[in-house]
Write a structure and sequence with these properties.
Shape: extended
Number of helices: 1
Number of strands: 4
Order of helices and strands: HEEEE
Length: 65
């Protein structure tokens, strides 16, 4: 069984454009680009939940419309 993952040969500009498209299509509120020398992992996300030191919780949701 192959464990190959999707791969795309793109320069930094093309990758940035694809990230912007993914954020728009999925209505994500942000993204994270992980470190990498040969490849990069880019994760989009929605609302962010923050837990404060006192235990209280707040959610940040950014409307991109």
């Amino acid at each position: 069984m192959s464990t190959a993952q999707p791969e795309l040969d793109a320069d930094a500009q093309a990758a940035s454009t694809l990230v912007a498209l993914a954020v728009r299509v999925t209505r994500a509120t942000g993204y994270y680009k992980g470190p990498g020398s040969r490849s990069s992992v880019i994760i989009t996300f929605g609302p962010v939940t923050l837990t404060h030191a006192d235990g209280s919780v707040s959610t940040v949701n950014i409307d991109i419309n």
